[in-house]
Design goal:
- The chain has about 170 residues and is mainly alpha-helical.
- It folds into two domains: about 1-60, no CATH class; about 85-165, Lysozyme (Orthogonal Bundle), CATH 1.10.530.10.
- The protein has helices spanning about 1-10, 20-25, 40-60, 85-95, 100-115, 135-140, 145-160, and strands spanning about 120, 125, 130.
- It has a three-stranded antiparallel beta sheet.
- Strand 1 and strand 2 (about 125) form a beta hairpin.
- The longest helix has 18 residues, at about 40-60.
- The protein starts with a helix and ends in an 11-residue tail after the last helix.
Amino acid sequence: MAALGLTAFLLGVPGASAGLDFLAERFGPGRGEGPPAHTVTAMDSAASAMEFRREVFDARPKPTPSPSATTIPVADSTPAAAPAGSVSEVIYAAAAEFGLDGGYLLSVATCESGLNPGAYNAAGYHGLFQFDQTTWAAYGYGSIYDPTAQARTAARLLAAGHASRWPNCA
């Protein structure tokens, strides 16, 4: 417990020095006259650290935008059309059906399988979005290697907030 209090004091947590102040008042020189003049409180330490950070932040050079020939165009609010290719079109259609960005869903499939509907992982994952048999039985339909079924199932799960099913890609 003492280590926790000392750590809090050193980090400048407000009120963390209350125990030390109590001990100084109770047993320190002059008993009850308050902390000696050379004592730095946690609030002083925290304020000093914040002032230092503010000065360092203010001293940094400010970036100035400069126009260039490679300026990235601002995207409009209309969804982009799928790139040519049947797997991409299927993924974009599934994304649109469930209100997702087609590029996002395509990036998850690219990360998981390299856009290969017949992909298989020795750990037991199959298809475009690398479903395992248990998840596919609970949420999928038809063949686990069907790109349309895979894309629609993945889009439905992602739209429902299940991005954690694809921890490395979603």
